[in-house]
Amino acid sequence: MCMMNHHYEELEESYLFAGIADRIRRYSAAHPQQRILRLGIGDVSQPLTESVIQALHEAVDDQAVKKTFHGYMPECGSEDLRKTIAAYYRKKGCNIGEQEVFVSSGASDELGDILHLFDRSIPVLLSQPAYPAYADANIMDGRKIIYLWAEEGNGFRVFPPKEEMTSLIYICSPNNPTGAVYEKELLQAWVDYAIRTDSIILFDAAYEAYIADEDIPHSIFELRGAKDCAIEICSLSKTAGFTGTRCGYTVIPEKLTREGMNLNTMWIRNRTTRTNGVSYILQKGAEAVFSEKGQKEVKNLIGIYRHNAKIFMRALDEAGLWYIGGRNAPYIWVRCPNGMSSWDYFDFLLEKAQIVGTPGSGFGPAGEGYIRFSMFADAKDIEEAGSRIIQMELK
């Protein structure tokens, strides 16, 4: 008999986005004349920038000529792109070498694949609420998850527990779904905890480009001792619009070891065994993101979503609603008014204002009573949604 992985049976039913889609479908069928403003999905709305498109076209043309044709790429990433990303880190004050950078097909893939490096007996420390893939990947792998509760009282951040244990520690800053950020002192406390307990931090930096405050670290490697205890995973999806193009990167310090085993060396073996690398075309597009012109374009791109957040936050302030996020992140986490549940407020917004958010309970039980709004929507929709919320709340 072929034995199955019964840990899949431990997964909660993935009804969040299916439930959202079903509610929208039923509402649209009953009210076909209404224009629904969708602020729920975390996908971007702006196209790829000029530099990226030009690089992609040139790379496609390269593939049509024998002299410039590229077949399999290095599994860990092209030398040029790895050098470019390492230089980007050095500009942020992080001493990262090109051999510590691994090009990936996106952060979501890496956040699950990286678990291959660690024994299943190691528990996982995970904040609540959280990006659902963190928990699901570990449940599928049969790992014990210890949840740390994030709430309004702690600014939707989590602090090192009093009990010291060797563990895998997921930290996402700026955070999805709450938009909360970890200041330097708190991140340093986590790094110190990881070093004391021989733990590893898996730092999700997918939204680092949205940080506006100077005292908020963009990378875990800005912290003292982080190269002894941390892996950083990042993506171009939300910074450069690569959600449909798929390219990211992972940083594993060459000095990072546990039980006499070097994690950088292990990851090289993992990638060369389990992948054939990211395509030449996509890597050339990614390389353009880090050019001087590309960085200016990305800054303008992010500026659009930051402006969306400012507009929406002003509307929430006028409506008298409590929220966190928005300033350093593309998500705004709003407390449902009048003690409403996440799904009740979702239905209320859809029925009364034709606005779609993401119920906070879909990110775990700590998200109950909140709703997430994405600032990746079109600017006109963001402005209209803000106006509708003000009108609805002030009636």
What is the topological layout?
Elements: H1 16-30, E1 37-38, H2 50-62, H3 79-91, E2 101-104, H4 107-113, E3 124-128, H5 132-140, E4 145-149, E5 168-172, H6 184-197, E6 200-204, E7 230-235, H7 237-240, E8 248-251, E9 257-258, E10 261-262, H8 263-274, H9 280-289, H10 292-319, E11 323-325, E12 331-335, H11 342-353, E13 355-356, E14 358-359, E15 370-374, H12 379-393
Parallel strand pairs: 1-13, 3-4, 3-5, 5-6, 6-7
Antiparallel strand pairs: 2-8, 7-8, 9-10, 11-12, 12-15, 14-15
Helix pairs in contact: 2-9, 3-9, 10-12
Question: Please, could you describe this protein's structure?
Answer:
The strands form four sheets. A seven-stranded mixed sheet has the order 2-8-7-6-5-3-4, sandwiched between helices. A four-stranded antiparallel sheet has the order 11-12-15-14. A two-stranded parallel sheet has the order 1-13. The protein has two domains: 13-42 and 294-393, Aspartate Aminotransferase, domain 1 (Alpha-Beta Complex); 50-289, Aspartate Aminotransferase, domain 2 (3-Layer(aba) Sandwich). It is built from twelve helices and 15 strands. 38% of the residues lie in helices and 14% in strands. The chain has helices at residues 16-30, 50-62, 79-91, 107-113, 132-140, 184-197, 237-240, 263-274, 280-289, 292-319, 342-353, 379-393, and strands spanning 37-38, 101-104, 124-128, 145-149, 168-172, 200-204, 230-235, 248-251, 257-258, 261-262, 323-325, 331-335, 355-356, 358-359, 370-374. With 395 residues, the protein is of the alpha/beta class.
